[in-house]
Structures are given as C-alpha cells and as structure tokens.
Amino acid sequence: MTQGLLVLWIVSSLAIVFETRTYRLIIYFSIFSLITSVAYFLLGSPDVAMAEAAIAAFASIFFIICIEKYYSRKENVEKDSAKGESLARKAVKAVPALVLCVGLFFLVIYFIPGIEPSHYLKHLYLQRFMTDVGGENAVTAIYLGYRVYDTLFEALILVIAVVAVTHMSYSEKTQVADGSHSEIETSRVAALSLRIICPIIVAFGAYLIINGHISAGGGFQGGLALATFFICRYMVYDIYDISVKNVLQWEEFIFAIIIVVTAIAVFLGAATYMPAAIVPIYQSVYLIIMNLLIGLKVACAFFVLFYRYITIERE
User: Fold this and answer.
1) Which of 25, 229, 231, 237 has its CA 20 to 30 A from that of 109?
2) What is the chain's mean pLDDT, rounded?
3) What is the DSSP letter of 145?
4) Dist CA 55 CA 220 (whole Å)
C-alpha cells in the first residue's frame, strides 16, 4: 500500500513539474497533497496528515486568488503565451526535480522496515492520553503533550518562514492605502455568497480551536479558517487597513507565550503539584489555551503571506 502511494506521489510530482497550464497545476497540487495526507496517515502520523490537508486547502485558495488577479489583465496572458519554451528546455529543467523524486523514492523503499512494526507506543498513547494529557482527542493529546517538542519546532519554523518572506520580498512597505482590486466584485452572486460565508468561516474557525481537545481539528486548522476569513474580507470589501509589521509582531509575541505555557505545563510538570481533583480541569484549560494560541499564530502567519503577496507586492 505504501509503495503504491509513493508511486502515485512521484507521478503527481512529475505532473506538477511538466504542466504549464496554471489551473491544471492547482488540480495536480491538490492531488499531490491528498496523496501526501493519506501517506502520513498510513505511516502513523495523523496529526501531520491533518496539518497537510489544512495547508493544502488554504494554499489552493491562495493560488486561485493569485491567478485570478494575475490573469485579470489581458496583456499578461498574451505576454505569457508568447514566451513559449521548447519541449527540450522544459525537459532539461525537470531533470533535477525528477532525479530528486526518484532518489527519495528509492531511499524510502530501502529504509522501510522489513519486519512487523511495533504498535507498543500507539496502544500506550491511546490507553493513557486522557490521564496523561487530558481531553478526548488523541491527536491533540499527542501534538500538545507527548510530541510537544515537535509542535514547538514546527511553530518556530513557521515564524522563521514568515519573517524571511517579509524581509526578503521585493517591496519594503508594510502597509498600503489601496491595491489591485479583486474581480469578484463584478459578480453580485459571488460577492453576496462571500458575505454570507465570512461569518460562518469565523464561527467554524472558533469552533475548531475551542473544541480541538475533544474533536478533530484544533488550533492549526482553526487558524487556517480564520486566515481564510481575511481572504474573503479582502475579496469582498477591498480593505487595506492592516499593517504586516504589526501582525508579524503579534505572531512572534504569541509564539513567546506558547513557549512559556509549554515550559510551565509540560517541561516543569505543573499538574504534578496539583490536587488530583483539579488536574482534569487544568488539563482541559491547558489544551484550550494552547489550541487558541496556535490558532491565532497560524492565522497571523498565513495572513502575512497572503497580504504581502496579494496587496503590497502587487501594488
């Protein structure tokens, strides 16, 4: 099963490399992400699989909006169609990516264990996560309890990536008064639909964050939903009133709070100093606070990426 997924993985990667039509690229990227999520799930990482699925959903929306803005000008389409590369040149460009994909494929096949995998940790986590970490969702208990080190480093990588994008992008501005408006405003039906969807997105994002300890979802998925709200807000109302610098500072501040909360709750083991009757309440509060902080941090990060490229860079 895993080998078959890896083959499909490579096929979808090659389709992305060789495809020149942008809208088909989005479709191939979505297929690639779906295969990736299933592979992560089958390899025993449901939390990473959920994160991959959420990122892909947001990225697809992001790409569609970028394309909608870029191809709204006829001259850009004509310019791109006139460029036209030869098939041989495209093949040469694709060789490094092909070699990398094939190499990674054979490395994964080579290092797949030939013996029956041990399920000791999986059964241990499922049996003890309610007592050790709290909540009713094993995935949340894993990434905010047993694997909180991974969560902190993932959050740090996201901070570094956003800071790098902000400081290395073309424009030095952090805020604009106006920008390229979305073509969505020409359709009354689409604009009305987005106005109706916006509050639903916010409510759904809040639900995912607050109920992350008892149901599928959590801070990461909820944060992406909140970031999607900003996309809809921009598309419908064309509002350019938020400073990227301020949002980035908020993200860094929230990350610092996440480190402090994790140090107190997990590294120092605050629950060990509390009466047994209070521990379940404390665990639920910890999971809710962490999901809230992660949700706000992710929302800030993806909003910075969106706002930077859609408004400031396109001005």
Assistant:
1) 25
2) 76
3) I
4) 9
Q: What is the DSSP string of 70-134?
A: HTTSHHHHHHHHHH---HHHHHHHHHHHHHHHHHHHHHHHHHS-SSPPP-HHHHHHHHHHHHHT-
Among the residue ranges 82-86, 133-137, 189-193, the one predicted with the least confidence is 82-86
Q: Cβ(47)–Cβ(13) under 8 Å?
A: no
Query: Cα(210)–Cα(314) distance, rounded to whole angstroms?
Result: 35
- Chain center to CA of 38: 16
Tokens 């639900």 belong to residue: 207
Coil vs helix vs strand at 32: helix
Query: What is the DSSP track for 250-279?
Result: HHHHHHHHHHHHHIIIIIS-GGGGS-TTTH
Task: Give whole-number Cα distances, 305 to 92, 121, 240, 298, 312, in Å.
Answer: 31, 37, 14, 11, 10
- State the Cα angle at 44 between 40 and 45, rounded to 5°: 55
Q: Where are the domains of the chain?
A: 2-118, 122-314
User: Residue 129 CA to chain centroid, in angstroms?
Assistant: 25
Residue 277 dihedral angles phi and psi, to the nearest 5°: -70, -25
Phi, psi of 123 (to 5 degrees): -65, -35
Give per-residue burial for 196-228: e unless 16+ CB within 10 Å, then b: eebeebbebbeebbbbbbeeebbbbbbbbbbbb
Quote the tokens at residue 176.
């604009």
Task: Identify the sign of the CA torsion 144, 148, 150, 156.
Answer: positive
More confident residue, 44 or 198: 198
At 56, is the secondary structure helix, strand, or coil? helix
> Who has greater pLDDT, 230 or 83?
230
3-state secondary structure of 220: helix
Residues 6+ apart with CB under 8 A from 303: 227, 230, 242, 247
